[in-house]
Predict the 3D structure of the following.
Amino acid sequence: MAFVQNFPFFSIILTIFSGPLSTMLSNKKAKIWNMILIGIVCALNLAVLAFVISTGESYTYMMGHFPAPWGNEIRVGVLEALMAVFFCVVMFLCVISGGQERAREIEESKQNLFYVMVNLLLCSLIALVYTNDIFTAYVFVEINTLSACGLIMIKNKLHEGRTLEASVRYMIMSLLGSGMLLLGICFLYGLTGHLLMSNMQEAIANLVATGQYQIPLLVAICLLSVGLAIKSALFPFHSWVPDAYGYATLSSASILSSMVSKGYIFLLIKIFFRVIGFEVIIGSHVLNVLFIFGIIGMIMGSLDAIQENSIRRMIAYSSVAQIGYIYMGLGLGTTAGVVASIYHILSHAVTKALLFVSAYGLTNVSNNRRDFKQLTGAAYRNKLAGVAFTVGALSMVGFPLLSGFVSKVLFAQAAVGVSSTKMFFTLVALAISTILNTVYFMKTVIRIYTPMDAETEKEKGFTRITAKEDMGKAIAMICFVVMNLVLGVLSQPIIELIETGLAMFM
Amino acid sequence: MSKKVTSEKYKKTLSHKLETWFYGTEDVYVNRVEMKPQREFLESEETIQTRENEKQKLLKNIYDVSNNKELNLFEKSYKLFCVFFCCVVIFTLLVAVSYMPTFGDSNNPVHNEVSERYIESGMQETGAVNIVTGMILDYRAFDTLGESHVLFVATCTVLILLRDDKKKLVEKRKTRLYEDKILQTVAKVLVPPVLIFGIYVVLAGHLGPGGGFSGGAIIGAALILYSNAFGFEKTNKFFNANTYKWTSFCALATYSVSKCYSFYTGANHIHSIIPLGIPGHLISSGLILVLNICVGVVVTGTMYTFYVMFRKGGY
């Protein structure tokens, strides 16, 4: 066994150990350690990615002295390693971008708790990506939920009541989702007698072939998909999104929107492919339900975003629409649709984090007011943020050369291969949602580029900021823009990686 | 090959413009792009008056809930729909459960090679007489590692929510008197045996029913009883914020490090040097005893910290 194969385990144990460690460190040391940790984990996972690509096959790693069905196990393939590396990079940029906001908004004595939450969140994301055991997945879903709740709630001097209310909403919805997930796992365990994903898949294929226990199996599939759909804020369960993303501190908002919900969707894809089997899922018609709600979410999320008067809540509602895209891709029920969904997970994570960071850059120069009237001319006051917001908005709309365009093309291509009803609805929904996206994003872009004369600016006490004054945000924004361009221009190798990764799932 | 350019010439190049724009020394738009200031919005007395009137009217209508027919109808139908929806979910789940394999049947899918090996060779392989402990702390130790961090992250979330770092408030709340004789006498009699029982449950986790989770909860309950009877000043002498920080860190660190060793050796098929001992003895079953103590410490800290935080927001 090559030494590289230990790296996924090392990254999980390092991040989980850094959680308690950060409580012992001072704020500054906790911050530095957090940066170093994410760097190390990213490097480890890059090595794993290179290793898996070179060998061309996935491998399992035994967690302990006992082989798989008795002990725990993690599984490493191309897709898993790719997601882990991607999550690390986005996490790093999200954390460095919010330095000023954290110093301003979070109480001095609680800042190291923020890093505890970030470390454990990263740990749970990596474990969710790599796990090959469905109960381990549940344990790390719990860590994920609690640390995300802490990130929303962490004392925000500006909107204390709002963050508390948002975290209560998040907690209720998220725990409902966790409960359904646990119930679904219980059902599946009762039917198969296994918790290991590959053994479960065999047992379920057996059950389907013999026609036993069809009703509990269907209910279990429904519980798992609905539970994870609630946790990842699919349309009718999105009521916690605008408050949670809109009032949490910058790093929390960008981490939540770009990674937490994506981790759950990745777990759902993993369950579809590795636990239940894609053929069984297609046969159960659960995907059609997800497809319908995805499409409704795409349109309703955009309509809500148009009505919003606060820039951050608008971006949060746009997240609801984008999650709708991902579920629509899953709902198509083809591998091409799933590839498009995974590509959209990457593209949306990069773009949404970029939008949040640049929106904070814009509101920072407008007395922290987030309504559109105050944002007039904000792009002149903070030029880099203005350009970054424009790039993000164009990517969301689906402008060529940017990542959003590629994912829209992939969705459209995937839609062509399926039944004519689904194809019709997908293409129409894509068209309508693109127009709606254009309405609210271009409205904002025009607003921030409408100049405000110097006197009113002075009267309102607005300041001008150059990129040098907030290096963290500048670096994050430039990196996100570059990643957006890379995803948009060099999409083919990444799509091939996702395809080989999915093939390893089967 | 780079060319040396004079500063005069450099100022005319594109990269100079980009640089000035990036650092904000010069705005490229000024004097180059036509900029129109927005027209100022002027209001007459009359419109202000009507606007105010309409606002008052609207507020009156909004807060007049009892006469709002649509709202009432919505609330009633909402409740009805909720009840209906819950009934449907309950019914579906009951139907699904009725189709599940019969409970306790020997032909059930759950009775397979997995549980067989746990029962038959669990004692030889883990050294623990209590199979459940052997399962959670040796066969599936990774899950329990996650689970103990769930407790830790839950405490941290409660600390974020409730810890009051402004000293004055804590001082103010300390003034409650503790002089309930009945409670104090009962606590004096009960706390030592409860503590000892809790420690026994933690230590005997691999020999019989018990373990870190249940034992830690018992010890935490004893601490809560003690602090209720005698006040926080007395408990603070041996359990304060620093104690919690250090004990939970040490416990979780021990857990992580020892499991790191055993996972690494296990996955790479290296022989582990930790002896299993003789099943049934107190010091046996390899790492399980240590892990049980770690889990016990974490659970104790979590229980007591939750109580203290909800009670007064600080130790």
